[in-house]
Amino acid sequence: MAEVPYYAIKDIPTKRAIQALINEIAGLRKLVAASGGRVVVKEGGGGGGEGYVLPVAGPDRLGGVKVGANLSITAGGVLNAAGATPYVLPVASADTLGGVKVGSGLTITDGVLNATGGGGGSTVSIVLPAGITGTQIAKITVDGTDYDIIAPSGGSAPVLTSYLEGHGNEWIDTGIYASDTVAIEVAYRPYATNKNNSEMDIFGSRAATYSSTGNTRFQHHFYSNKLCYGYRNTWHDGLCPAVIDKDFIVKMDRSGFYVGDVLLYLNTDATTFTDTRTMWLFNSNNCPTLAFLGRIYYAKIWDDGTLVANFIPAIQNGENGMFNTVDNTFHGNVSGSGAFDIYGVS
Question: In 3-state terms, what secondary structure has residue 33?
Fold first, then answer.
């Protein structure tokens, strides 16, 4: 068949048919390019070819979608979210996760929140006993601001001091009964001037008449300037010399008698008992003639391992005595004569 150039064709209907075919082929080429090669034109024509298939849209692929819930599409093909509510970040609280603002003492870097200051903390000072007034027990200063520690009951607050001095006529009732579960620790200094053949009781309780069978003693005593220990119905004289005008810390309980941490007497009496008399300081209850000549710095009493009294020398309403910081009670002289002296007041 002879080839005839398109421009040489003179028959108008034939030329139009050829031009329409050219246009159709060009359109098919564009369709194939747009569809990624999915348009197939089969030989033979007649409408048997596979048309363009729109792929389903995916994260990495353009494609078609269906209009689902909370979506709408306009006549121009614009897809919109229908009725969407903007998200509002809640304020953070103890029970709610949420947002916070960066306030004072905080910094934020790349989303990381940090406290500033390096743990410097507050500056705290306590004034005791000087510089207090009115009903204060003490004054505490936090970051430059003063706060009063107020007396627990009415009246003038006690002023805690260094030590209380007895002259052999005064004593204090602790209000606590001696027993096999009680332990006591006292810091004191005996004076060189003694009476009654150098006998005097530093603390405790005992019967006026000693009995080897009764619950008669819970007592620390001086005899001929030696330390002595009485527990229930036993008595131990001269455990060691008493050094006059020197400080001692003594402890006693059912296990024995100690000076500092040194055990001077090991007690083996495991009998259960409770005395019928409360313990005194500066004397033993029921022996008024043997009151202590010296000073006491403090006295601590435990019952079954629990601290029940912490007696500190103090002044309250012009009276010298001891203040129990455990139950906030003041204990003055109950002997009916004499008066304690007190030291360490600014």
Answer: helix
Phi, psi of 233 (to 5 degrees): -110, 30
Most confident stretch, 118-122, 134-138, 197-201, 291-295? 291-295
Residue ranges, comma separated, of all CATH 2.60.120.200 domains in the chain are: 162-343
Q: Quote the CA–CA distance of 276 and 179 in Å, as a whole number.
A: 9
* Number of CB atoms found within 10 A of residue 229's CB: 23
d(CA 328, CA 100): 45
Band (100; pLDDT cuts 50, 70, 90): confident
| pLDDT of 10 over the 70 cut | no
> pTM of whole model > 0.70?
no
* C-alpha distances out from residue 141 to 38, 72, 126, 146, 150, Å: 85, 68, 6, 4, 14
How far apart CA 300 and CA 316 sit, in angstroms, is 20
- CA 273 distance to own-chain centroid: 39
Q: What is the pLDDT of residues 208-226, one digit of tens each?
A: 555 545 556 788 877 777 7
Q: How confident is the model at residue 46 (pLDDT cuts 50, 70, 90)?
A: very low
CB-side neighbour CA atoms (13 Å) of 231: 23
CATH number of 162-343: 2.60.120.200
The Cα 282–Cα 287 span in angstroms is: 11
What is the C-alpha to C-alpha distance for residues 177 and 195, in angstroms, rounded to an integer?
27
Query: How far, in whole angstroms, is CA 210 from its chain's centroid?
Result: 51
